Each structure stands twice: as structure tokens, then as C-alpha cells.
UniProtKB/TrEMBL annotation:
Species of origin: Aspergillus lucknowensis
Top-rank EC class of the record's enzyme: transferase
Highest classification ranks of the organism: Eukaryota, Fungi, Dikarya, Ascomycota, Pezizomycotina
Protein name: glutathione transferase
Protein family membership: Belongs to the GST superfamily.
CDD domains tied to this protein: GST_C_Ure2p, GST_N_Ure2p_like
EC number(s) recorded for this UniProt protein: 2.5.1.18
Alphabetized UniProt keyword annotations: Transferase
Amino acid sequence: MVKPITVWMTPPGPNPWKVITILNELEIPYEIHSFKFDDVKKPPYIDINPNGRVPAIVDPNTDLTLWESGAIIQYLEDVYDKENKLTYTSLKEKHLLNQWLHFQMSGQGPYFGQASWFNILHHEKLPSAIERYEKEVHRILGVLNTALENRTWLVGDKCTFADLAFLPWNTHVGIILRMPEGEDPLDPYPNVQAWQGRMQSRKSWKDAMRMRDRLMGEQGLTPIGMPKGVNNMKEYEEFIESQAA
């Protein structure tokens, strides 16, 4: 009998939800250890992940503790996806899947994250930094839009872990780019827009988002991941200091 995997996370960020969605897809039992962002650099989490970033998993079935969302996804595929539900074993497809996962981790995640930082979380507006990372967001979306031309999925004829890895960050694009309410930032990228819609309609994602809403509510967090009334990281740090005092 498979024992539940423990997933350590702070609920606002996109990366933990890549892992939760994969766990849902593969129907792997798990339990979430949700904690506040201001504790990511403190024990006990820093003892699990010395890098102080989320997510991390502890798997009692293999006695393995693992961090970095991409590494966790590959691990879950290797150990638990025995039916190849989200993967392929053929040489070509296997390496194409890894290519797209690496692009998500080296391209989409970092550039979308920096755009989010300078557009939302940084207390000082730096136009040159905002312009650079917004352009990178659009560049990444352009790459994906081209790759998905006349295709339903990135690799092969089914949704795989490579597709799902892009899902959480793409869901945040409107917030990252501070789009006016009612405008879809994916309108200029119809292939990405349709692909995103296909993934968001999956039960695994809907279940993950219901769980995210609950965990965010428990911590009193707004959609940008800050406590209500806090608008950037400087204010958040001041908020933490006031709470400690």
C-alpha cells in the first residue's frame, strides 16, 4: 500500500501547483504541509530544503526527500507513472518531454517570476526592468504559440507532464502583466490560449485550485500572495516585523 507523500509548500506561488496537479493526475496519495512564506528560510523547512524555496516532498515509500519542482515531477514520473499516463518511453518523445520541461524551468519560470517581482512585489517601479521581463514573458508565449501550431499538445497525442508544467505560471499571466480586468493576455497567442483552456478544464487542475483557494483563505492572502492590505515585499517585511513585535 502506497503511503501518502508529504508536500511542503507555501500556497501562493505557482511551482507547488505543478507538483500537486501531477499528483492528482497520477492519483498518488499525498498530504500538504502548508506554511507561511516568511518561514521558508527557517527550520524546520530549511532542514528539508537548504535553498529555502517551495515545493519539497518527503516520500516515505522510498525514504527520499526532494526539492526543485522539475526534479520532483521527473521523480514522480519515474517511480509512479507505471502506465505512462503522462509520459512516453520512446527515445524521441522521452527527450522532447525533457526538453520542454527544461524550457519551462529555465525560461518560463524564471522570466515570469522576475516579471512578477518587478511589476508587483518590488516596492520601487523600475521601468527598464519591467520592460525587459515583460518582453521576455511575451517571447516565451511566442515560442509556445509557434510550437503549438497545428498541435494539441507539446509532444505526441496526449497531455503530458511537459504540458502541465507550464499550466500554473500561464494562469498567472494576467496578474503578472497587470492586465485590465476582462482582458485575456493570451488573446495574441491563440494556440497557447486554446492549450491553456484544455489543461484548465482537467479535473486534476480544478481540484488543485479548490485546494489552493482554501489554503490561501486560511492564511488570509490576496491573489498576489500578500496579506490583505499589503501591496509589495517592502510592506510585507514591515508587516512581518510588526507581527513579531
